[in-house]
Amino acid sequence: MILDHDRARALHAAASEVLPGGVSSNFRLNGTPVPLTFVHAEGPRLFDVDGNVYVDYALGMGADILGHAPAPLIAAVQASLAGGQLFAGQHPSEADLARALRARMPSLERIRFGGSGSEMIHAAFRLARGFTGRSLVVKFEGHYHGWYDDILVNTAPPWGVAGDDGSVPLRVMSTGQIAPTNVAILPWNDASALERFLAARGDEVAAVVNEPIGCNTCVIEPVPGYAETVRAATARVGALLIYDEVITGFRAAPGGAQERLGIRPDLTVVAKAFGGGFSIAALGGRADVMGLVVTGGVLHGGTFNANTTSIAAGLAVLDALDADAYTRIDRAGTRLMDGLRTLGARHGLPLNVQGMPGVFNTAFTTHLPIRSAADYAQADAALQGRFLVELQERGVRPTARGTWFVSTTHDDEAIDQTLDGADGALAALAGS
Ligand code: PMP
Fold it and tell me: With contact defined as beta carbons under 8 Å apart, do 3 and 50 qualify?
């Protein structure tokens, strides 16, 4: 180890006496040498309890698109708090934020707010089932739509083998989970599997849900024509197309993956980036479908929905995400992706850098291209794990799955530092 983690170890041991595993989410369990504890964050950097500083690419799992503690966001939230935090009633800024979201993502004709991506995905399924009178939801291997029982299936390997109807066997991801009986799973980027499945069971399908760009497994874009096929096939069988843009929303492009791909889904869930690290999510889409929460008997509730802090945060983030902000992310992300590719080649390692400047994935593999979760399973997971540890020890912190998020604050100095760290990390891997 290069860095000292003594205080992190001691705090983790003490925290584990009161927090199971010393953490508040299972996705934070796998830190090396222990899950780290941070005291402060600023711009692109995180500061831990041992005095170590990291250029951060986890960015609150993609939420902190303006970096840490951005002044305009913090000021807007502070100002909102002085006026009260939660009214069990409306505040004028709520509709302002909905209008701002719709201006960027026109398919969001009507919008409801909530607190998390998982929760709004759950609401989307209820609406789709209410609208169609059908119960089956189709999802894709490796796509993650939150941790609720009704959809936490086939998000991690081993991946399945598609049967005659194109679907793979369902696997729940948690002990204690009620296995959903109304979800089918298909391999991603396989138009034939989708067509086979819809030919057999299309009239049962309420919705087809996907991450339009699969950011939870290697950042996999749809192959040319596939997004159009999913859109057309879903409409043909009378099912709704739900885009889970929890990660891609306002990150893949100002109007999200749907803008980048040129597809108009029926319903969309957005979260993470537009809250800038505050707890907010939204479900939006076709006015006739969303209208069922008023006239169709479809219930959507939530004590904390549209609390003033979250709305103020959303407005401040969208205000800051102007053309210049996207240029900064594009520039920094492109430099970083190119730099990592060059370093991988220089060290003779098969480092694959895949995705977009705002969110990309690194993995070690010669099995290219990676178009599905099964393709990604061929990558060297052990080498990836070592790479992430070596990076952390040199002050660079991507997510634990090798996905890198880039913020508007990742300037040249941060990228230089990152590439220096990556050079050392790759040298360590190549030398052993
Ligand atoms: N959908 C996607 C694509 C996600 O990446 C996530 C979270 N990583 C979720 C849904 C769930 O969101 P949350 O953690 O806010 O419940």
Answer: yes
